[in-house]
């Protein structure tokens, strides 16, 4: 008879541990007691249990798995577990009967080949087991030759290893990624998070790698509190800016120092790292953490550790994905009818002659037309040309990575390669990358080990640049996409216009409208890059705890930028009066960076109360950079492309070379007393060739203390508190990102500049920069206070931090006396301050056998302000080079006591209405005396003209009425990720936001202007002021002063973005083991899925000018794409 034993229990009972003691008891009796404690059901035939042997058990708080394994030893029974049901069947051969036994010796190691003393080793299904000794070695005797060993160690993933008659085993364990954040990488070493005295942010790599990305910084935004990540635009391969805790410098680079596998580098190409190869990312934020990098640590440090070989059998992994990218947003433009209606207001005669079909005077054709064939109404339902749909496309993106890694106790290795291909959503644009990487680590003996790694990356970026032209707004690509006429005259096919190189309706002496589709198809813009990184190290342990590590590396980057414009492009068309016909250029760049580090480490725990870690050493670093370029215009045979440059009109050759070196000494002491009181002190001295005598050396000390309150006796009775630590740090760091030759005077050889010498003419030299021999570092003093708290056995982790950074000796252009003959020179005279709060919360909301839900949340508030400028200077204005008209018009202002990045201009007050005027005659308008005028021409103002606020009340709106009209840096920013797991399914959802930042939407100055002939406008301009439509704030067509910087073009750039959603499924091992696959996960992900914002542009995350003084500027930016990706990860 089939017996089913079922017990209904509560969720609290399910999962309860088994505690049971029985001697010589019937198996069925024991099963019933286990059922009562665990809530599991048992399914079996009565006859199968009738012949079972009596059992002796003594279980104390063991799991159901362990209890059943021990219970069925030497029984002629087998069992299987599904959900909460145990199925028991008869077995002809009892377990452990008639088997061949062997003796086994082995060693348990971590991925780096270090022993794991105390590791637990047991035989699956039996009571036999042991623990590894101090060298990680173990021995088991009389073991079934076909048994399975189960190896476990705290902080590592449990591993099962089949014996397969092997008598000697080396077993490597992998770190449990869920515990990875317990160890962080700091400068020249690692530390437990619980022992940190400084502020170090860490990225959860499992979250980070949920969706395929081109570079790691694309996925970094919103992951770490206080780290602002801004992409300039959405073009594949475009630059990304990372700022940690606010911008310190006004004129120099604010990007952090990158340390890649121990190799420090500035101006790092983030595209050179395959994101799938990253093991960990740690961000050093405060001076206590970053001062060990001295003159290069003021902007923070990002430490990236890539994957290396680990002990164990070879593991082969493949990860492939294929995605589809779509343009998220197309700008609403005027319809053909509205466009022509506007043209009839701006240029009535030209409009009629172009579109209404003039009827010539048969008597005298030179007279004005006697009539027209068509009317404006004939165009009301014309479909027209959608230039955006012609330009944008659905673009594929795919990635294929293959790696192999493994090793023994002595030798560990890894090999990997990747092919990444991303097409842009604008035709003929994209990015390609191929990468190969190799690592090798060799333990020569128990004292000496060596290792090396090599990475080679080759990439290609191609496509028309959309926002980099500086001298004219019409040079930028989207100017013609949005502005090109959307309709052809009746009788002319739209296809004919698409094939025209330029718009012949436009007066080319003042404007030039090129065919954007033809340009995108014919313009060559491509950059090839080759990046090689080689690192090597040797490490010798003198005595336990004392070791010397010597490492060296080189990074060589070669880039070749090619540009060619044939006659069917804007820059090469013979009809363009602003260019010189077909032209091309080639520029070669080369950068070589090298590093040598020599670090001695002493790590000692004296007794239970004292723990000491000391490092000391010196480093050498150097960099050499250079480029040369050649170009030619008026190429007679454009079919030759760049091969025909020699036949064109040559242009002056460009070239540049620079070199610097840095020598440093460093030391750091970490001391822990009773695991309650932690102390850190560090010092670094840097000598740089960038500075002159007397300023070459800089000294950068830091200190920090931490108090582990949780380990105090008075905290032990607070049961809900699992961690509590208070931190305080202070330190000085430097910024050496000055030009290699800034301290020297700069000279040029101007054309046609000669002087008389020895009765002849000699080439003259002009000193264009007087030089600054007293230049020195920009220095940042930083104080940080932090609190780390854990609740409910660390199911809730909370961190709060306050920081203040004072940066002095800013490099600014200071005015020189008139007697010097020069206007200004760089000097160390300015100061800024950044201060803010950061909060991070990590929670395990639900975790049981089948389902888990975790959340990570961070938010950061930063405030900066100007403390000091040059002598007697209260403000500093900055211009944007995007159009020649605005080249001398200030858009940003930095004032003493106020934030960096403030937007400067007029306050927009809508338009002048009829009530603002008196009307002596039906066609005459006189502005009322009490109404302020734009400029001094009161008689030229008309109803519908744009209106600005007269701040000083003098009746005239002029330069004195400019004021702060926006703030480009956010009030706060952050991110939140939620990760769900149900059985083999995983779901990740990541949100990112920015709040309180403004954006200058300069596109409105062109496409809500209404004063350019045959230039299409945004659809919003349809609501412009007309005598019939006076209830509006949009200015009239053909009016005045609509081009000024004002609040009209400053918009709220706050946004909330659903940045990543990833859904994956890991196939059960029972399903894939039959085909010898170790693991298989399939997934689908979406990036940039939705964005909630009030910004009217294509995307609020934009910064095309990318300097500290000119943030948040948008003109002709390449739109960001929404990406849907499908992929699979496979391991053997």
Automatic annotation (TrEMBL):
It is found in: Cell outer membrane. SMART domains: STN (SM00965). It is a multi-pass membrane protein. InterPro entries: Beta-barrel_TonB_sf, CarboxyPept-like_regulatory, Plug_dom, Plug_dom_sf, Secretin/TonB_short_N, TonB-dep_OMP_SusC/RagA, TonB-dep_OMP_SusC/RagA_CS, TonB-dep_rcpt-like. One of its GO terms (cellular component) is cell outer membrane. Residues 40-91 form the Secretin/TonB short N-terminal domain. Transmembrane segments: none annotated. Keywords: Cell outer membrane, Membrane, Receptor, Transmembrane, Transmembrane beta strand, Transport. It comes from the Bacteria. Pfam families: CarbopepD_reg_2, Plug, STN. Belongs to the TonB-dependent receptor family. This is TonB-dependent receptor plug. The lineage of its organism: Bacteria, Pseudomonadati, Bacteroidota, Sphingobacteriia, Sphingobacteriales.
